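Narrative of accomplishments. A recurring question from our advisory board has been how the design workflow behaves on a single, concrete structure rather than in aggregate. To address it, we present the structure tokens for one chain from the evaluation set, followed by the sequence designed for it. No filtering or post-editing was applied between the two.
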């Protein structure tokens, strides 16, 4: 089978080599499309492939239609909001992700971001420490649990909420369960967001939640920009000069936020949560193994469009 590795944001070379090694050892062929400029290049590259490995690359109905032999798409990572699941299903294409494989990298970035903003973005201004503060984790999945464990090790008190977990499960993961989202926001110095972008979550974090945070609080977003109501965020930062926002996913109004609220907002220039060699290797190799396994045995354990 021909497997296309299509990554606008390339994996580390070692990950690419490892992916190729797994695929070739299983009798497959790998084509590489890195740092492509536009969709046209992707549409051309998918024409004769049976499988695609992607990161945040968009695989929509047009891409799927351009790949008549396509059988499987694996998103080497957690969030699959960049894939049209319905179009894939209609075309008989299996979509998978590689849950947990890049979580540690994202969790480390969330912690780093909290320290960075608490220290005035490394300016000489007097900052504050995260030890002794309370962090609220919104969604206690693979990344959320790792953030909680690291925060605890740094002396923070950890609270969490997750609609898919019981209070006992959250407790077992080392956090104090919180029943209502508003309670999480109003009771934590930091809230770290780890929800996926879905029709239910898009725009769900806005003025009301953000302004319910206590004095001096910080909202940390290493999830997706779409989950924030950007107008609500801007108004919250305007009305509450003590609040801060740090994110791995620049909001559309970022330049204005920067001008209006210097040192209280920061966004990475490019999404970099999962951009470590380790995460690239873990997620990339898992994707290659899942594809090889799917073609060999039909294993659909990680399918997300059943
Ligand atoms: C994910 O959903 O796995 C992360 O957001 C990483 O995305 P990336 O592979 O585009 O860096």
């Amino acid at each position: 089978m021909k497997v296309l590795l299509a990554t606008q944001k390339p994996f580390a070379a070692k990950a690419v080599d490892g992916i190729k090694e797994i695929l070739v050892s299983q009798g497959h062929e790998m084509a590489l499309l890195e740092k492509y400029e536009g969709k046209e290049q992707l549409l051309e590259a998918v024409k004769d492939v049976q499988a695609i490995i992607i990161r945040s690359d968009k695989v929509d109905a047009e891409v799927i239609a351009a790949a008549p032999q396509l059988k499987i798409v694996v998103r080497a990572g957690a969030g699959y909001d960049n894939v049209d699941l319905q179009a894939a299903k209609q075309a008989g294409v299996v979509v998978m992700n590689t849950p947990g494989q890049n979580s540690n990298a994202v969790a480390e970035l969330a912690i780093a971001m909290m320290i960075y903003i608490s220290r005035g973005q490394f300016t000489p201004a007097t900052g504050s420490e995260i030890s002794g503060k309370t962090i609220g984790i919104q969604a206690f999945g693979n990344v959320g649990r790792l953030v909680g464990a690291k925060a605890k090790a740094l002396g923070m008190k950890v609270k969490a909420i997750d609609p898919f977990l019981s209070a006992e499960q959250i407790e077992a993961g080392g956090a104090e369960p919180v029943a209502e989202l508003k309670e999480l926001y109003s009771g934590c110095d930091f809230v770290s967001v780890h929800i996926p972008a879905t029709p239910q979550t898009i725009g769900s974090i806005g003025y009301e939640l953000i302004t319910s945070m206590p004095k001096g609080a910080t909202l940390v977003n290493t999830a997706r920009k779409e989950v924030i109501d950007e107008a609500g965020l801007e108004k919250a930062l305007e009305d509450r000069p003590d609040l801060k926002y740090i994110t791995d996913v620049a909001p559309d109004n970022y330049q204005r936020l920067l001008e209006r609220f210097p040192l209280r907002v920061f966004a990475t220039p490019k999404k970099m949560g999962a951009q470590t060699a380790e995460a690239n290797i873990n997620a990339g190799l898992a994707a290659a193994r899942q594809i090889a396994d799917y073609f060999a045995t039909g294993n659909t354990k990680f399918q997300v469009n059943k």
